Amino acid sequence: MEQLSDEDLDHTDGGEEDSDKEDQDLDKMFGAWLGELDKLTQSLDDGRPETVQKAPQKAPLRQETNMANFCNRFSMYNINEALNKGGEGVDLDSLMADLCSIEQELSTIGKPNSGKNRLGVPGDAKLRQKPPAGRGTKGHGGAGGSGGGTSSSGGTRRPLASNLDDITAQLEQASLSMDEAGRQSSHSLASSVGTVSEHAVRSISQSSWSSVNSASASSMDSLDSYLRPSEQDGATPTPQGSNQGPPGSTEVGQPVKNKHHCKYNPEREREREREMHSYLDWETSLILQNIAGKPSHLLTKEEQVAKKKAEKIRVALEKIKEAQVKKLVIRVHLSDESSKTMMVDERQTVRQVLDSLLDKSHCGYSPDWSLVETINELQMERIFEDHENLVDSLLNWTRDSQNRLMFIERIEKYALFKNPQNYLLGRKETCEMADRNKEALLEECFCGSSVSVPEMEGVLWLKEDGKKSWKKRYFLLRASGIYYVPKGKAKASRDLVCFLQLDHVNVYYGQDYRSKYKAPTDYCLALKHPQIQKKSQYIKYLCCDDVRTLHQWINGIRIAKYGKTLYVNYQEAMKRTEAAYDWSSLSSSSIKSGSSSSSLPESQSTHCSSDSGVAVSENNLSGHSRSQSQVSSIFSEAWKRGTQDEVPPVLTPSPYPVTCLY
Amino acid sequence: LFLSPSISLSLSMAAWDLSVAVEDLGTDAPPITVSVTSDLHIGGVILKLVEKSQVKRDWSDHALWWEQKQQWLLRTAWTLEKCGIQADAGLIFMPQHKPLRLGLPNGLNLRLRVCFSGPVFRTVLGICKMLNIRRPEELSLLRPVEEKKRKKVRDLSEELYDLTEVPLTSVSRPCLYNGMPAHFADSPKTEKVYKMLSVSQPAPAPEAIAKLYRPASVVDKAHIHSRWLDSSRSLMEQGVQENDRLWLRFKYYCFHDLEPKYDAVRLTQMYEQARWAILLEDIDCTEEEMLLFGAIQYHINKLSLSEPQTMTSSPAMDDLDSALQCLEVKLDGANSSPQDMLENLTAPELNDYLKIFRPKRLTLKGYKQYWFKFKDASISYYKSKEESLGEPIQQINLKGCEAAPDVNVAGQKFCIKLLIPAPEGMNEVYLRCENEEQYSSWMAACRLASKGKSLADSSFQSEVQSIRSFLAMQQTNPNTHTDDSMSINTHSLVSPRYSKKYKAKQLTPRILEAYQNVAQLSLTDALLRFLQIWQALPDFGISLVVVRFKGSRKDEVLGITPNRLIRIDLGVGEVVKTWRYNNMRQWNVNWDIRQVAIEFDGNVNIAFSCVTADCKIVHEFIGGYIFMSTRSREQSDTLNEELFHKLTGGHEAL
């Protein structure tokens, strides 16, 4: 493929093109693994187990990538890992389902690119969405596309302008007609991608150094890359040189793609001139500038058209962003030692994941259902807060992590709000309180202009660094952190010594530290940066005299750290619980949670999804996809709880996020 | 007092002379004598008085003050007889509104015309309306602390801004003109005063702080609260004279419905009160908290000087048109985004020779020089510039790291201390820069990266700027005081205790460190953050009074807070017991023996007499807080004055 050869040439000029190239690298790696996986599943379906061996063979690949490129390494590893555990059919299938649905999304975005080639062929978009099966026709479709493009490439500005509408239209169409798109043959997919993988192997080893910064390129890059698809050609003196693919490359679509790129060279020059408006045409952008600030009713027809166009573009951009969301396939363990595999995207909060788990597992809608992170190596666990981002938290795990994600009912989660008098009043003894007063107390504590942190103070045991000995200290909790009273001082604020500030640490329940660290009691808590996963002097261990004190401290720290958010979480959870008893409202509430997830935090999307952005066009060109009906059946299958013999969880060594995809 | 109608009728026949001093004629002028009968009502007396004075002017604000009994005769329909006035009553005819010197929380002294005849609660309402402070019920007046070295202090503290000429508006909410109430927009002079009210004042000199009165003990703090005026009586009745000095302060520490859009003055004054409480050690805090307070103060000072318009020109998207405009601008922005994309492709980088040091390594080698490249959110380094196209020696992803300065400007040391989280723990890395320029941009990049932002982020330049300006601050010699805003002495940002404890050289870097976390806040957000941290202090909102509990033999301290009462041991300073208002059944004051008795749920009864403050003050505090807690439920803006007096008035109100 010519992009590979671009790369070869790129090596000489270095510098500017780096990020592009890396994206391509990743892109290919991604494609490669997708391909591998696909092949694998197919062979699994066929009942030929020897292909399973293939994945481990590829394993050394990941060492080629840079250490710092953690995310990519992570994702590759996990795919690999998943394959190794291929024995569990359901898991692999559901994994496949997830992958396919990602693929689906990827090809959805990719389409506009090809749409660009087929200007003036209105029916073409639909045509493409139900291509006939088989690889021959695949190539054919691509060729047709480029032919259409050639016919219109002589045009002036119009192509670009209408291209916009085209993109928007296609995006909309594509997202609506996922099923249709899904009917593409998976056979052609597997083979074409398989060849890509070989290229990827080479390109990675050749240019692993350049893959360093790719992860953080903005997601917008990808838009850019497909709006100006000939960008890479700039570094290629002779586009024809791109035919120097690696020997043995049997990619069917290859010549087509070359054509497609060559064709764009003349167009490119003009594009450069219009760089300022490279996705809005000249008139439109001029009009937009003129009407900025004008009330809408004063706009002329033309201006309104321009505005609509701009709006469409915005929608298109959003859809693209949407499709580039990072996804993670996770395994969630249940208390009965079974497990579920599911896919979460990076925008989902713990609450949303819990909601979808609750919807599917029919276990009642108690607000106490929690996602619990257990770190076996450190013998600690933490209930994820509802507002936290699950993917972010899980990405802190190492690739060989023994950590588990549990889905269980934990009364500790919201005990604070059910009996606030036991946590907020700093009392030593448990007591009862009228509901009315509880509400007032919560209101007072959480709804004022600032949250009042419960006045926790008292003697706790502190584990000495690197030793299994514990010292008594008088600790105090303040909104600004945890303090202790130095020896020989009174506990006046000014004399307190700061033990920890809470911005960067999370609080964990320690498990059985009595035997592990010779703790004086079983009621231990630990404070650490979420990224720390192994024994470290940066983890602080505290031990309380009784369980009540332990819970009070942990909840106090949660309040100091999260403030009102905690209360909002609880109210949300309660709302959810109440809604669940009203079956008619159930569906609407789940719709709600779905729609809320579409407002994605910008910073995340701009940082994580670049790779997929480029992968998009690549995948699209190779055109692989998978039957949607098949996908959905597999996916729903995955939701049935595995029977006991299928999943022996106690012995399963690595039950963690199985896959991370971008 | 109550005579039978027949007798009063007979008495009323007899006319007698009543002499009334008219204040406006001067103290030397003889009192005017009018002939009255006992059944003449007060309004009639005033009418006669005005006629006889032969002065033509607006007398509408005037009323009769009964000097002897220290009370106003405001019910004009009452007869002299009903008021109990006889010929020997020394009455004074005087205006109800008189100038008062008012000390504001920010130290500004205003001279303005206030009501001397209505209850202080009313007077405060008037003052707040004039100054454009919402929620006036949270404020009150108190007598200032007598300054012992009065002579010395006088010259620097007595700058007075006269607002007596400013007409009082009768509109309930003053209309804004040019971002300020219309009555301030009349003259440049008053405009200037309004600006001083709504923008926080520059940091005082550390010497000035050290000279100001600081409460040294719990008892001292308790004494402050004996100075509050009685809300249910008038200024005159409490012995306040024309041109006397009083302080206006936030008295009840529950700030309802704080809305930066409308509350420019309120927010600023609240911040100033908080700042002074911290600087004068009225409220205790830890070192870390003090440094953070210092950092936010510095930030606020800087912003107040550079963008005085921020408070008023907050983006108010009131109408659809402006919202639409905003959208179009955004689209316009999207319009140029391919440009941004292009820039992103060639993402901004920093490239330079820096020195690195990893203290964790066992080898003793110090800083080593490498070619560093900062791109996106990670640092990579190479042996030399020439090798920067190849594989880096190491690449460090800074997302989630902590970046702390290790800077000594005088010693030309510009280090960045990075604490980078990894599964194995935190990795410590030091980067040493050559000069300020280099340091500013690399530090800014590290700060952004730690938050997961790249160099392309729009805040990069402002981050660089703020680091630079802080460095500049360190450079200036603290002995040469200039007006330049950047040369603020860090000692003026912390209380004298920390001024003494640390040299500027030690203090500045630590404030700088705390400053990094707040440098990006807008002025309003910074003010709110300051207040928020203040409110989160454990000692926040506790007003202390020394009391003697019934049955106890020693003095103890009662802390009155927005939600509870605290019994504190005077000796140890330890909390003995807390009672929450939620559990309170009733409270009574026995005005004869000056004792407060409170009954809580579950048959808990307490009673105490007040030592440092009058029991009316304690009563008013408790009633006031209960009044404040009723506000949130009825979401209306109208102030239930009657309820306030009912809860706080005591026997006078009945």
Overview of this protein structure:
The complex is a heterodimer of chains A (662) and B (654). In chain A, helix 2 (18-46) packs across helix 26 (610-622) and helix 6 (89-117) packs antiparallel against helix 9 (158-176). In chain A, strands 1, 2, 3, 4, 5, 6, 7, 8, 9, 10, 11, 12 and 13 form a 13-stranded mixed beta sheet that branches. Chain A is α+β, with helices and mostly antiparallel strands and 662 residues long. The longest helix of chain A has 29 residues, at 18-46. Chain A contains 27 helices and 13 strands. Chain B is an alpha+beta fold and 654 residues long. In chain B, a hairpin with a 5-residue loop joins strand 6 (97-103) and strand 7 (109-115). In chain B, helix 9 (264-279) packs across helix 17 (523-536) and helix 10 crosses helix 16 (504-515). The longest helix of chain B is centred in the middle third of the chain and has 20 residues, at 287-306. Chain B is elongated and about 115 Å long. Chain B starts with a helix and ends in a 6-residue tail after the last helix. Chains A and B meet through helix 12, helix 14, helix 15 and helix 20 of A and helix 10, helix 11, helix 12, strand 16 and helix 17 of B. Chain A: Residues 233-247, 606-621 have a biased composition (Polar residues). Chain A: Residues 1-27, 108-161, 204-272, 594-628 are annotated as: Disordered.
